[in-house]
Amino acid sequence: MAEADPGIFAALPAVREVEARDAQTLDRLLVEAETPFVIRGLVGDWPLVRAGRGSAGEAREYLLAHAKNRAFPVSVGGESDGRLFYDAGMAMNFRMMNAGLAEIFARIEEGEAAGDGPAIYLGSIDLHDYFDGLHAANHVDLGARQPLASIWIGTRTRIAAHNDVPHNLACVAAGRRRFTLFPREQFANLYLGPVDNTPAGRAISMADLHAPDPDRFPRFADALASATVAELEPGDAIHIPALWWHHVEALDPFNILVNYWWRESPRWLGHPQDALNHALLAIRDLPADEKAHWRAVFDHYVFGDPEAAAAHIPERARGVLDPLTPETAGRLRAYLLRQLSR
Hints:
InterPro entries: Cupin_8, JmjC_dom. By secondary structure, this protein is of the alpha+beta class.
């Protein structure tokens, strides 16, 4: 895999490092976190980590011993250096297929032997749906949180900067991974691609961190000026707060990551990306004066003080202007579905 100019990463400040010797300390760090942090050795005692430190083959055997007998979704292709991205026609430069884990690992081993195999990438594989006992033997105590636990397995790959709505605790189990992180507000300087044609559901940066193009992406230098970087070894973990942008590189021939996603808001709330998509459909292309009106309406009802917006309405008649509950959120969702299906 072709490495980026090391000067790019050497010039970036390191993500701050903290210690968490018990679940209570980790919980406090996660609650208080406003910026990313690294915890060295957080999962160093996992059996999966110990297998990965032995060899890639040991790690694969460990996973196969826990894998369910089902087809796994896998991405195959990418650029010669493992970049999973768009091709010249803005289609994906990789193809999706389904195969058993043993077959996928055999293909990875063939590529390792030949030294020129394609990128092979299993992304966001649900630990409970695809493995038996793997989560029980290898997990982080996150207290009352109920996270989605996923595993990411593959060859050398790099994933363009993107963000996720949930909070993320990512734990390296095998291989090394490099995370380059950008604050939330840098989205305009990252030159995001289409929101409806994405590799994995989230818009990604069109700027290549390995080959910045200042003529095409002049503001990307401003994003880099606010970036931090962390290179993680097996057993290390990184916390990425919700909506922080992260460029992720798997640096070794075989790599495994386990991550946990959770939201602090209730699960029954809607997804903000759906609201953005609906606004693109309903508001963006209106005449300027009407757009200005709807901006003011959103500021009043959504971004302003919700109590003040409904104070003149009798309490029992405020409907969805009151703080949402599972019941009122369900009624609002049903109403929207009826409207969108007209």
